[in-house]
Design goal:
alpha+beta, five-stranded mixed β-sheet
């Protein structure tokens, strides 16, 4: 892919790999910066302030995760729907991820919703590490910055 004009695709895949590794290592600031870029690249001005647009941007930003995960959007869980659940494939040895999206609130609010609405119930039968990931962006800020919080829990 390094020849024949595929360089932009290679760069996107590298950014996707970095985003996943930053998420798995709990580097929330780097995840927020990566999502700033990804969201701006894939969302139009007309749809930027839409949670579905953010969910699509995240699905694309984490494209490389598909080799180790099955991504499920709006997964029924507890008392609601988890925005995106990353179910690790059996061969991966990776933790599961439960992602909640917000805009013009806070990443902490997203994380609190995962807990209060018991979204971990979606992972019934799963044992091991689970990363709870709250993502928010400030639509009223001119730069539309994202913020992220990542918390690790163990399910037995």
């Amino acid at each position: 892919m390094s020849v024949g004009g595929w360089q932009p695709v290679t760069e996107v895949l590298r950014a996707s790999e970095k985003l996943l590794e930053d998420t798995l290592s709990g580097n929330a600031e780097s995840v927020a910066r990566g999502l700033d870029k990804a969201h701006a690249e894939v969302a139009s001005v007309l749809t930027y302030h839409d949670e579905n647009s953010l969910a699509c941007a995240i699905g694309l930003a984490y494209y490389s995760a598909r080799k180790d995960y099955r991504l499920i959007g709006e997964m029924p869980a507890g008392r609601g729907f988890a925005d995106i659940v990353f179910l690790p494939l059996p061969h991966s040895g990776r933790p599961a991820l439960v992602v909640e999206l917000k805009y013009s609130r806070s990443a902490d609010t997203a994380l609190r919703q995962i807990k209060e609405r018991n979204y971990l119930q979606a992972l019934e039968g799963f044992c091991g590490s689970i990363l709870l990931v709250g993502i928010n962006y400030d639509k009223d800020n001119r730069n539309k910055p994202h913020d992220c919080v990542i918390e690790s829990v163990e399910k037995r």
